[in-house]
Amino acid sequence: MPRNRLALAAALVIAAAVLGAMLAPYLPLLDPDAVDTPNRLRPPGAAGHLLGTDEFGRDMLARLVWGARISLMAGVGAAAASMLIGVLLGLHAGYWGGHVDTIVMRLTDILMAFPYILLAIAIVAGLGPGLANAMVAIAIVGFPFYARLVRGVVLSLREREFVEAARALGSSDRLILRRHLLPHLLAPIAVAFSLDVGAKILATAGLSFLGLGTQPPTADWGSMLATARTFVILRPHVALLPGLAIFVVVLSLNVLGDALQDFLDPRLRHG
Amino acid sequence: MSRYLLRRLLLLVPVLVGVSVVVFLVLHLAPGDPAEIMLGPQATQEDVSRLRADLGLDRPLPLQYVHWMAHVLQGDLGRSIRMRQPVLGEVLLRFRATLLLTATALVLSTVGGIALGVLSAARPHSMVDRLSTLGSIFGASMPSFWLALVLMVCFSLWLGWLPASGMYGAHAGGGLLDLLSHLVLPAITLAAASMTIIARLTRSTMLDVLRQDFVRTARAKGLVERAVVLRHALRNALIPTVTVVGVQAGYLLGGAVLTETVFSWPGVGTLMIQGILARDFPLVQGCVLVIALGFVLFNLAVDLLYAVLDPRIRYE
Fold this sequence. Notes:
The complex is a heterodimer of chains A (about 270) and B (about 325). Chain A is mainly alpha-helical. Chain A contains 9 helices and no strands. Chain A has helices spanning about 1-20, 60-95, 100-110, 115-125, 130-155, 160-170, 175-210, 220-230, 235-265. In chain A, helix 1 (about 1-20) packs across helix 9 (about 235-265). Chain B is globular. At the A-B interface, helix 3, helix 4, helix 7 and helix 9 of A face helix 1, helix 6, helix 7, helix 10 and helix 11 of B.
């Protein structure tokens, strides 16, 4: 089963990235912010620097591992916030219908009338550059995707017999939403979330790359790429390595998301 | 068709109002006084008060919106604080460069995507098909700004074939060839992800169409495979592709912001980022408004085109 092997390899890559990010303070790494100008822009394999150094002589390996903490946390955090807002709004829009549905859907229409990254940039422009603001912007831009997904599923579920039965037994709307509808949404939400984390890592890295996310000297993959841009002609490794890290992790998340989709939706397995 | 057109235009009104509200609120998201943020900590109280009055920030928020909209409807997007010029003229000037980049990327992604999709579907599991599948997985995961840097390193630094940044060379005279050579790398960067999406969709719809009876009939008539694929199957497979091409065009317009920044392409994207970093809010508002309007109008054009291609849409 080569597809399973691919998913396993993707899971191993993600596990390694997450473990590396979590254990960064305990790993035998150099200080990621320690400036060493005499040793600036050393190529990979230079003495004491396995992946070379950046424009300030800071160790690339240490910055990549510490950068993983910010990049992964930002991606997962923004996706989780999008999901929470989107699920809450979608659930209520689908269940109550009427004005609630109209307001939520028009709100998503307006947000979706902007190109995704443009709106995120505009929101950061208002809030001010910084990682937290970048995450807020991406969470706001991303929630319509979940809201529409959940609303669609709830619309088809709310007329089903088990909801009718729960209502006939005297269950409150809150109980029906929480105990009867929400469990049915877990599978589609899990698939959407697994595919969305990669997109959110790309988006936060993009904002950091534009100078609107993580601010120097904090290491994150997007901002590392941004500062390395100036030196790409001199030493391509300073730009290629953080980009490669983003690419490999997002690729693994997408492969794993696809595998999860196949697993949770058996109709796709033999398609 | 005219009733459909009227309905679509009416539906556009609330969306445009919503877009304008969001763009207007951008200025007011910041905690604190936008005038103080724009002028920075060195500004005197007098300067701040003057700017507040100039921008109408001393009025209630709904009134400010009405005032701003009244000006926008007359084509007045305010004055850029950094450049001390009307925003609209500068944004429209830069928008031409953005449109050129976006349109080139759209043509590249559409032609390349359809060609790859057709080749993959005509020979499933061939080398082209596998490479196309690999490309689509990579395309969805690769940061466009990183791809830009990789292309720069390969084609500008190592091979020296193409210029690394800008729209015209400093001493090249600004001719068409100069422009085209500067356009190649940004257009490929911007088109890459869309091309893989269009290729995958064309492949799957082509595979569906190639299994249908009319294709079998065409083959039974003795038509050569090339004619079956290009003249019979492709035409029928193109309708869903048109929708995706339309959606992608909108996203290319937004994605151009990142690509322009890497390649120092003088479009609205770079102007907007300069505006954000210089806290020039009227300029940022103007850029966002023009790109968002372009996006909305483009989506409308695609919907109308789709209704022309597939009459069932009009009667839904």
